[in-house]
Amino acid sequence: MSLPEQLGRLRRINRIGAGGFATVWLYHDDELRSPVAVKALAENWAQRDDVRDRFLEEARILRAADSDHVVRVYDIGEADGTPYFVMSYADRGSLADHLAPGLPLPPPMVVDLVSQAAQGLDVLHRHGVVHRDIKPQNLLLRAAPDGRARVMVADLGVAKAMLHASGLTQIVGTPAYMAPEQATGGDIDQRADVHALGAVAYQMFTGRRVREGMESVAQGQPPIPPSQHTPLPPGVDAVLLRALDPDPAGRWAQVVDFTDALQVSVLGPGQPVPVPGRSASSGPEPGSAPPQFPTGFGPDRSQLGQSRTTPAGHTPTSQTPPGHTPQPGSPQFVTPSQAGRTPQPDNTGDPSSDGGRPNLRPGRVLLIALLAIVVAFLLSFVLVSLFTR
């Protein structure tokens, strides 16, 4: 069932996506001149009061989280018996839109993205909520007012609660990211989200998933060290493999513990995540938004502020032609060395460096002194000639 063309002052644009439990629509608030996403419960589930309650509980949890790194909910309502809630629109899609098999992301970019996701998960954990289904599709990307991008955690694994309400015992989750205890029916706490976020980071670092298939999840075998797939800074293997430990007791206790260790292993102790256009040594500006993605991440930056809309029934296609691998120098290609490098300014003769004084090299000082002596000699010679006539 489609939501109506008009929801109060919201005007429907098109459908963003649909799943077994809900459909998400793009609407536009003509009064505030901004796009919003509207998530509506699937019609076959909308008839069950217990499922409706759990659906709306997700909206309440998201509203209570009130974090820049969790999808925000602005309103809830009902249209023709279908409950819905209005939430943040991810104008840069999801992390899944920017991942391609066999193409790793630069390590500094991975640290940035994973750290932002961990901040959102940490807020949920402090509210007593375990996500249970962290994966690239549930990590949404939105442009901040200053043009930077931020990660927002979405979809709180409410599908699992819905299946329990229906009396089904099917395991819900994505095997490539799921913790073994989710597959075997063990106790689940925030360490399941540590595992899932570690699996997302593994894929970003290597361009490969940790595993495929439910059987490999239940077996609980440690993954191949990521450095065997791609060159990585020393220490990344140990941090990631601890996050992906099959035994919850062996993992990082909190998502922020994991990402703090990951940042140190990639950037070194005390080093902030670099922001393009600023020196890493200068640190983040107080109150600044999360850093921008380095140029070359995802679609062309001139189009990132535009709505990422897909007509209903249309399957979006990649901007890269099938079978084509982006080459160095192309808009979608960023090598690890390029992404982690901060351009060093040439301070020679720059009045803005060294407290406003020109930063002159010794050779130039000597040359200037010699020129001054020559000019003084010529001037004195002219003056002497004039007075002796």
Name the descriptors.
389 residues; alpha+beta; Phosphorylase Kinase, domain 1; Transferase(Phosphotransferase), domain 1; 3 domains; six-stranded antiparallel β-sheet; two-stranded antiparallel ribbon; flat
Q: What do you see in this structure?
A:
- The chain is an alpha+beta fold and 389 residues long.
- 33% of the residues lie in helices and 13% in strands.
- It contains 11 helices and 8 strands.
- The strands form 2 sheets. It has a 6-stranded antiparallel beta sheet with strand order 1-2-3-4-6-5. The chain has a two-stranded antiparallel ribbon with strand order 7-8.
- β2 (10-18) and β3 (22-29) form a beta hairpin.
- It is flat and about 115 Å long.
- The relative contact order is 0.11.
- Keywords: ATP-binding, Kinase, Membrane, Nucleotide-binding, Serine/threonine-protein kinase, Transferase, Transmembrane, Transmembrane helix.
- Residues 213-233, 269-358 are annotated as: Disordered.
- The chain crosses the membrane at residues 365-387.
- Residues 269-286 have a biased composition (Low complexity).
